[in-house]
C-alpha cells in the first residue's frame, strides 16, 4: 500500500534531502583528508627511517672500508713472517704496533667495534678483543664476506654481533671486523626518543633487535604479521602495512638495509596523526546531531500546530462526503485554525439542517410516488378477477365462485391497506399464494411452488413487491404456452444479501428482447415501457439502495428466471 505524502511528510523528506548532501559531502571530504594525511604520514615516516638507516649504513661502510685498509699496512706483512723473527721482543713489538693501528681504525667510528687480523700461514693473529680463539674464529665455515649476525661468547658471556671478513689475495691475511647489537639498540633508542615510534630490527629466522623500552607484546604481533606477509631483506626496499593489534589500528613502515640485509621496522598508531581530524569529525557530527534534534523538534511543533489541524479538517470533510453531517471539530489551541474550525462547524450545522429538510421532503415525495406505483398495479388484476366471477356465476360454478371470492377478498384486504408501506416477506408470500390460486382457477393449466426458508419470512420489504413478478410470469410466460406450466418461487439468503427467485417454464424471450428489457428497467417510465417489472425494480432501488433491484435471465426449464435481490441494510438515503 503506497504511503500518502502529506505536507508533514514532504517537509520531513525535504529536511532529510537537505541534510544528506551536506553529510555526504563532509564524509567524502573527510575521507579525502584522512587519505592525504595518511599518505603524508607514511611518506614522512619512511623518509625518516630511510635517513636513520642510511646513517647506520654509512657507519657500517666506514668499518668495512677500515677493514679493507688494514691489510695494506706494512706492519701486517711482518705478521705473516713473524715466525722468522728470532727475538720475542720483535714479535711483541709487531703485534703491539698492529693493535695500535687496529684501535686507530676503530676510533674513526662512533660505534663500539672490534678488529682482528689473522695470518693463516703463521697461524697467529692480533685482535682488539680481550681474548680470541683464532682457530674457531677463522674456520672455513665461519668466514663470511657479507655482514652476518651471530652469537659468540666473550669472557664467558654470550654476545650477539654483526661480523664481516676481508680476505686478501692468497689468503695471506684475513681481517675480521665486528660490532655488537648494542650499537643497533642505541640507534633504536635515539629514534624512539624523538616521537611515538617503537622501532626494531627484523630478519626472518632471527630474534628481532629491540630498543630498550620496547613493547614486547606489540612487537611480537607485528613480527607475526611480517612473517605472514613474508617481508624480509630480499623483498621490496621499503613499504607500509596496516594491521589491527589489541583493538587498535597500527601503521607499519619498514626500510631494508642493503648492507646488513636486515629490515628497520617502525609502527605507530594511525590515530596518533589522525586525532585532530577525528576530533573535528566528532565536532561536526555533534553539530549535525544538534541540527537534526532541532529539526525534529521543529517538525514535531509543525506537526502539532499545522499537520494535526489539517488532518482534522480532512477527516471532517471526508465524513461529510460520507454523509455524516453531524461531525464537529474541536481545537484547544488559539491560532488561525480555531477560526477555520469554528466556520467549519457552522457550515456543517447549516448543511445538516438543510439535508434534514430536503430529506423530509424527499421522503414525502417517495411515499407519494410509491402510492402512485401501487395504484397502477391493482386495476389490471381486478378486471380479470371480476370477469372470472361473472363467467363462473353464469356457469353456476358455485365452488369456483366461492374460492375466487375468498382469495380475492383476502388479496384486496391486504392491498388496500396503505397506511404502512412495508410488510414481512411472509405476508407478501401469502398474498402471492392468494393471487396464484386465483390465476390457477382461471387458467387451470399450471402449478406453483413456494419454497422460502423460514428465517426469511420476517424480513421487512416494500408491500406488493413480489406479486407483479408472479403476474408477469403467468401472463407473458405460462399463458401463451399451451402445455402444462410450472411456476416456482424460492428464497435464498447468504452474506451477499437476500434473493427471491421467480422461475417458470413458459415461452421465455429471445436474448435481444431480454437485453432491451434490462435497459428499460433503468430508464424513466414512458408510455411504451411496462409497469410491473419497472415498478418493482425502482421500489427496490428506492428502499435498499442502487445495488438492489431486479435481474432477468433465461431459465434452464425454457422460460424466464427473475431474481429480486437486496441487502439487509437500508440505503444512505433513508427508508422509503
Automatic annotation (TrEMBL):
InterPro entries the UniProt entry points to: Bact_2-comp_sensor_kinase, HAMP_dom, HATPase_C_sf, HATPase_dom, Sig_transdc_His_kin_internal
Gene3D superfamilies, per the entry: 6.10.340.10, Histidine kinase-like ATPase, C-terminal domain
Name of the molecule in the record: Histidine kinase
Transmembrane segment boundaries: 12-29, 282-303
Keywords: Cell membrane, Kinase, Membrane, Phosphoprotein, Transferase, Transmembrane, Transmembrane helix
GO MF entry, a single one: phosphorelay sensor kinase activity
SMART domains from the UniProt entry: HAMP
PROSITE patterns: HAMP
A UniProt-annotated Pfam family: HAMP
Principal location class: membrane
Domain HAMP: 304-356
Kinase as UniProt keyword: yes
Amino acid at each position: 500500500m503506497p504511503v500518502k505524502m502529506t505536507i508533514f511528510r514532504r517537509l520531513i523528506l525535504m529536511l532529510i534531502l537537505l541534510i544528506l548532501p551536506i553529510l555526504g559531502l563532509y564524509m567524502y571530504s573527510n575521507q579525502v583528508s584522512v587519505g592525504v594525511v595518511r599518505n603524508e604520514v607514511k611518506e614522512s615516516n619512511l623518509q625518516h627511517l630511510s635517513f636513520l638507516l642510511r646513517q647506520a649504513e654509512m657507519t657500517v661502510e666506514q668499518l668495512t672500508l677500515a677493514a679493507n685498509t688494514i691489510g695494506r699496512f706494512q706492519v701486517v706483512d711482518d705478521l705473516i713472517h713473524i715466525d722468522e723473527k728470532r727475538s720475542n721482543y720483535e714479535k711483541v713489538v709487531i703485534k703491539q704496533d698492529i693493535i695500535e693501528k687496529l684501535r686507530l681504525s676503530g676510533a674513526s667510528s662512533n660505534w663500539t667495534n672490534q678488529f682482528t687480523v689473522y695470518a693463516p700461514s703463521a697461524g697467529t693473529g692480533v685482535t682488539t678483543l680481550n681474548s680470541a680463539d683464532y682457530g674457531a674464529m677463522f674456520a672455513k665455515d665461519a668466514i663470511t664476506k657479507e655482514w652476518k649476525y651471530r652469537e659468540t661468547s666473550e669472557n664467558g658471556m654470550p654476545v650477539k654481533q654483526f661480523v664481516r671478513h676481508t680476505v686478501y689475495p692468497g689468503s695471506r691475511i684475513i681481517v675480521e671486523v665486528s660490532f655488537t647489537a648494542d650499537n643497533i639498540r642505541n640507534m633504536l633508542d635515539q629514534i624512539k626518543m624523538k616521537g611515538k615510534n617503537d622501532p626494531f630490527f627484523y630478519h626472518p629466522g632471527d630474534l628481532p633487535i629491540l630498543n630498550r623500552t620496547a613493547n614486547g607484546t606489540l612487537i611480537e604481533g607485528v613480527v607475526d604479521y611480517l612473517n605472514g606477509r613474508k617481508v624480509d631483506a630480499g623483498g621490496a626496499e621499503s613499504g607500509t602495512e596496516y594491521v589491527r593489534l589489541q583493538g587498535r589500528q597500527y601503521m607499519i613502515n619498514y626500510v631494508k638495509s642493503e648492507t646488513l640485509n636486515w629490515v628497520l621496522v617502525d609502527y605507530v598508531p594511525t590515530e596518533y596523526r589522525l586525532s585532530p581530524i577525528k576530533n573535528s569529525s566528532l565536532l561536526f557530527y555533534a553539530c549535525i546531531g544538534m541540527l537534526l534534534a532541532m529539526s525534529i523538534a521543529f517538525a514535531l511543533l509543525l506537526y502539532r500546530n499545522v499537520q494535526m489541524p489539517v488532518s482534522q479538517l480532512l477527516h471532517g470533510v471526508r465524513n461529510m462526503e460520507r454523509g455524516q453531517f453531524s461531525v464537529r471539530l474541536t481545537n484547544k489551541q488559539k491560532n488561525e485554525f480555531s477560526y477555520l474550525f469554528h466556520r467549519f462547524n457552522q457550515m456543517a450545522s447549516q448543511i445538516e439542517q438543510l439535508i434534514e429538510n430536503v430529506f423530509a421532503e424527499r421522503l414525502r415525495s417517495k411515499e407519494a410516488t410509491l402510492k402512485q406505483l401501487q395504484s397502477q398495479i391493482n386495476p389490471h388484476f381486478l378486471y380479470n378477477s371480476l370477469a372470472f366471477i361473472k363467467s363462473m356465476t353464469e356457469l353456476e360454478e358455485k365452488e369456483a365462485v366461492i374460492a375466487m371470492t375468498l382469495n380475492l377478498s383476502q388479496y384486496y384486504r391486504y392491498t388496500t391497506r396503505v397506511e404502512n408501506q412495508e410488510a414481512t416477506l411472509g405476508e407478501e408470500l401469502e398474498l402471492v399464494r392468494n393471487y396464484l390460486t386465483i390465476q390457477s382457477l382461471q387458467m387451470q393449466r399450471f402449478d406453483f411452488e413456494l419454497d422460502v426458508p423460514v428465517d426469511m419470512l420476517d424480513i421487512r420489504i416494500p408491500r406488493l413487491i413480489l406479486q407483479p413478478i408472479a403476474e408477469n410470469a403467468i401472463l407473458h410466460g405460462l399463458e401463451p404456452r399451451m402445455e402444462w406450466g410450472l411456476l416456482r418461487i424460492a428464497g435464498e439468503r447468504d452474506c451477499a444479501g437476500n434473493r427471491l427467485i421467480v422461475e417458470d417454464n413458459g415461452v421465455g424471450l429471445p436474448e435481444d428482447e431480454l437485453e432491451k428489457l434490462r435497459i428499460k428497467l433503468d430508464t424513466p417510465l414512458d408510455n411504451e415501457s411496462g409497469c410491473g417489472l419497472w415498478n418493482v425494480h425502482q421500489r427496490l432501488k428506492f428502499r435498499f439502495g442502487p445495488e438492489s433491484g431486479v435481474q432477468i435471465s433465461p431459465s434452464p426449464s425454457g422460460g424466464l428466471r427473475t431474481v429480486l435481490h437486496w441487502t439487509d441494510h437500508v440505503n444512505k438515503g433513508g427508508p422509503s
